[in-house]
Amino acid sequence: MDIQVQPTILFFDSGVGGFSVYREVKKLLPDYQYLYCFDNEYFPYSEKSEEEIIERTLKICQHLDQIYPLDLIVIACNTASTVALPSLRKYFSIPIVGTVPAIKPAAEKTITKHIGLLATKGTVKRKYLSDLVDKYAADCCVEKIGSTKLVELTERKLHGYPIDLDEIKSELVAWEKMEDLDCVVLGCTHFPLIKSELQQCLPQVTHFIDSGFAIAKRVEFLLRDVKVRSKNQIINQVFCIKPLLEGDGLRKLIYSLGFEMLNLLNI
Ligand code: DGL
């Protein structure tokens, strides 16, 4: 009897942030085949040029698609999604799902009409973002913080090193006294992974909103009648571009998330 091969989904991010999206998709679609690639050679993407981000993202996704025929790619990185989606969609004929800051849900949820967007330095300054705000949150006052430091702190935490709450707090001082700030959009996929720390620093905020669940629903919808490209089953695995250090705590986390192997990708 033939085994029914499940769709293969690739998640791409500069670092560990994409795991916050992956875990939502995996929860909804536990039997699919999962590949996760993080570009730790160019991390962080926050302040890199648009050209560099587009080139890296395209090159890595193309490379993996040649080894494993993919059925869908999730760009689990807001910073890359704001610039690289058109090029990816031009090259690939499979669905490319991007990560868009959840401005619309936040504008629907806020009572005070005062919301915050926490993202990378790159994301907060892009036109893509101001268009989203104009379209969905024109009646709200939208505060923005672009931080590379918070991305680095999240990365440190997931690699198993302690992080200091005061360092997180110092990135958020501008919002400390804003008593009516009730919703914060986590516009970088790293930030759901430090949600409890952010909650401690901003106790007035009632909702921290990310895009993970919405992406999972979108993936489910796009793959409902897919004709799977791969003839073979593969194992769920993670790829990085440069080797991890000896004793890096990320290995343990990767296995606990349901991946069976960590590989180096030679690009
Ligand atoms: N996780 C990423 C994002 O959603 C990028 C973080 C970075 O490399 O700066 O924007």
UniProtKB/TrEMBL annotation:
Domain of life: Bacteria
GO molecular function, one term: glutamate racemase activity
Active site: 77, 188
Keywords: Cell shape, Cell wall biogenesis/degradation, Isomerase, Peptidoglycan synthesis
Reaction equations catalysed: L-glutamate = D-glutamate
Family annotation (SUPFAM superfamilies): Aspartate/glutamate racemase (SSF53681)
InterPro entries, alphabetized: Asp/Glu/hydantoin_racemase (IPR015942), Asp/Glu_race (IPR001920), Asp/Glu_racemase_AS_1 (IPR018187), Asp/Glu_racemase_AS_2 (IPR033134), Glu_race (IPR004391)
Gene Ontology terms describing biological process: cell wall organization; peptidoglycan biosynthetic process; regulation of cell shape
The UniProt record lists the keyword Isomerase: yes
Pfam families per UniProt: Asp_Glu_race
Pathway(s) it belongs to: Cell wall biogenesis; peptidoglycan biosynthesis
Chain positions recorded as substrate binding sites: 13-14, 45-46, 78-79, 189-190
EC number(s) per entry: 5.1.1.3
Keyword flag Electron transport: no
Record function comment: Provides the (R)-glutamate required for cell wall biosynthesis.
Family: Belongs to the aspartate/glutamate racemases family.
Annotated protein name in UniProt: Glutamate racemase
Organism: Rodentibacter genomosp. 1
